[in-house]
């Protein structure tokens, strides 16, 4: 019997591009033309985008890939895919980086390896009449080298190779990531957000501790109590419980 963790999911195409400005742009362009889903990865992404308008640098040998989807749902439902992606990423990194790798998820969707940022996720979408008709789940993983540290970033970047000595190609990484994503997505679709929420919190960094969320207009410090049914961060602050839908978190 084949190992379910490394079986390529049915109905999912795979494209490997030598160069791309951004695989998220490719995925959004491709999504309206596909029947099922498609992963697009590239060996050279030269205008990668990060969260909150930041650039995403991709040193050679790292992973840059996006899943093109046509969810046809509300934006709030589509946003839950960032938690699906975070869990799948954590599974895929654990599979390649070995048992000594200390992995944690940082809300909303960074993956930390030995306390540094090893991977990030950027969801982008297009749609009409309040429905998301094309979704790009963009994922960057520092497989080979950490990019230079950005002063505004909450965590220093690290890479799997530099932390563990293990080298993995983007194609082999995708062979772990795609099945893991398909499994978590099927749980979301069949059981709803609750098991995803619980699994995320089981791996969340600094749950129960004092953290700071910067939203761009405000800085909110409080005890990290959990995440709600929409994926918002719940902080217990001096002014009461607050739900933070989007922010950068600092420990
Ligand atoms: O800021 C973050 O942490 C999110 C980074 C997301 C980067 C990935 S790389 C593949 C995809 N294409 C992009 O332009 N961005 C995402």
UniProtKB/TrEMBL annotation:
Does the record's keyword annotation contain Ligase? yes
Signal sequence span per UniProt? none
InterPro entries named in the record: aa-tRNA-synth_II/BPL/LPL, Biotin_CoA_COase_ligase, BPL_C, BPL_LPL_catalytic
Its Enzyme Commission number(s) read 6.3.4.15
In terms of Gene3D superfamilies, this protein maps to: 2.30.30.100, Bira Bifunctional Protein, Domain 2 (3.30.930.10)
- Reaction it catalyzes: biotin + L-lysyl-[protein] + ATP = N(6)-biotinyl-L-lysyl-[protein] + AMP + diphosphate + H(+)
Provide the species name. Answer: Paracoccus aurantiacus
> Where on the tree of life does the source sit, at the highest rank?
Bacteria
Report keywords, A-Z. Biotin, Ligase
Tell me the Pfam families matching this sequence: BPL_C, BPL_LplA_LipB
What is the designated name of this protein? biotin--[biotin carboxyl-carrier protein] ligase
Ranges for domain BPL/LPL catalytic = 1-189
* UniProt-recorded Gene Ontology molecular function terms: biotin--[biotin carboxyl-carrier protein] ligase activity
CC per GO annotation: cytoplasm
- The EC category is ligase
Keyword 4Fe-4S assigned to the entry: answer is: no
CDD domains reported for this sequence = BPL
């Amino acid at each position: 019997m084949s190992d379910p963790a490394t079986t390529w999911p049915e109905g999912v195409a795979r494209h490997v591009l030598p160069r791309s400005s951004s695989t998220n742009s490719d995925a959004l362009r491709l999504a309206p033309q596909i029947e099922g889903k498609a992963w697009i990865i590239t060996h050279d992404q030269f205008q990668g985008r990060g969260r909150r308008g930041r650039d995403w640098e991709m040193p050679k040998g790292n992973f840059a890939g996006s899943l093109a989807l046509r969810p046809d749902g509300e934006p709030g439902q589509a946003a839950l895919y960032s938690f699906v992606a975070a869990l799948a990423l954590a599974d895929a990194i654990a599979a390649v980086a070995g048992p000594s790798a200390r992995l944690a998820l940082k809300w909303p969707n960074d993956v930390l390896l030995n306390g540094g940022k090893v991977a990030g996720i950027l969801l982008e979408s297009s749609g009409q009449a309040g429905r998301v008709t094309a979704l790009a789940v963009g994922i960057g993983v520092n497989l080979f080298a950490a990019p230079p540290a950005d002063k505004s970033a909450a965590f220093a970047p690290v890479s799997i190779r530099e932390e563990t000595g293990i080298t993995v190609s983007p194609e082999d990484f995708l062979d772990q990531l795609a099945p893991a994503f398909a499994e978590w997505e099927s749980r979301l679709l069949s059981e709803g957000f609750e098991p995803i929420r619980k699994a995320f919190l089981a791996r969340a960094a600094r749950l129960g501790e004092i953290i700071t969320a910067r939203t761009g207009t405000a800085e909110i410090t409080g005890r990290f109590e959990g995440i709600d049914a929409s994926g918002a961060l719940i902080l217990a602050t001096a002014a009461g419980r607050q739900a933070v839908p989007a922010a950068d978190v600092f420990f």
